[in-house]
Amino acid sequence: MKFKKPFTYTALTLSLLTLPVLSACSKEANSSKAKDQQEAKAEGKQTSLKTNVEAMQASLKKLQESLQQDDRKQVKQYGTELNEKWLSAENEIREKYPLLYTDAEKYLQPLYTEAMKETVDKTKAQDLSVQLSRSLENLKNPKQTAMKNSEALQKAVEEYSAYVNEQTASFVTTTKAFTEAVKAKNMEQAKQLYGASRVYYERIEPIAESFGDLDPRIDAREGDVAAEEWSGFHRIEKALWVDGSLTGMEKYADQLNQDVTELQTKIKGVKLEPTQVVAGAMELLNEAAISKITGEEERYSHIDLVDLAANVEGSQAIYHAILPALNEKNAELAKKLDEQFNGITASLAKYKQGDSYMNYTSLTKEQVRELSQQLSALSELMAQTAEIF
């Protein structure tokens, strides 16, 4: 995954103090002044966002020209420049416009990945750049999604929040068992418990990723962070499946257990909004279809099917939460989503072995392609649920 700057789900609360003696004119003047200040502030933020997006569009245009000219050096240069500009603004975009954020992210991430390759698929990169150009244009002048505080949507948020807290509690428990096995240097038990812990993290990943440095500390892969800062699940994964020794892993086990406990504390204080819940599902499926499908997430243990199945389950929990509201608005879309979730669940079930899944490297290219297509189709359908807000 690509690690992001912290994204916090917040609710703005204003407290108004009433002064005992104010004339009607004074009240109106103050009210008007406050309104002007708020509008100026909002306009300033909007201008800042527009400026950032225009900067991204400029870099994207240069990248498109470099692709046309087959200039490998400049493709890499402008691909890097575009990604850096996105990273500098994505926290604000993701918080204010989660659905527009997800739409842009699903094209920018694979475009950047393609631009960094030694041999670039020019057709693929150009197609992605066209889609990203459309997304950025929509983002340049966004209209903030109106929140519907309908009973069905509020219930959806409450239901999903309860799900996240339940999954996090299980994550804490299974991680504790895993880290104890690591500290006891019980290789086989640690290998078994590794996958069991990963399930719960992958189900709640959209929320887990939002807390600053916690996600990298828990889930960074080798090369995602500086070597001396690398810790978490994948540091221990390498020790289990590559090094064949747990010597020296005690400190990583203790740190992981501490980080997971901290994550639970932070998640309990999260306030979710309906659009952010749906955007989380879309982001989860996008990431699974684009990067995790390559097998890069669990590069040593190859339990990638465990992660993919958990990503689908986490997204399905969101779908079930919003289903009552979706049925009111678009029963046909709900039916299609149900069929798509059933389809990919059936596909994943073919690769089950007991309580887990077969080694990801055992899959053929055709089988991987089928899963990727199903994940992409599911993500596109989930994107359409934005209409209920």
Automatic annotation (TrEMBL):
Key words of the record = Coiled coil, Signal
- Which Pfam families does the record match to this protein? Peptidase_M75 (PF09375)
Would I find Signal among this entry's keywords?
A: yes
Q: Which segments carry the region annotation Disordered?
A: 29-50
Coiled coil feature spans = 246-273
Domain Imelysin-like, first and last residues per copy: 156-383
GO cellular component annotations, sorted alphabetically? Answer: cell envelope
Name the PROSITE patterns for this protein.
Answer: PROKAR_LIPOPROTEIN
Q: Which family does it belong to?
A: Belongs to the EfeM/EfeO family.
In Swiss-Prot or TrEMBL terms, this protein is called Tetratricopeptide repeat protein
According to its UniProt entry, this protein's organism is: Ectobacillus ponti
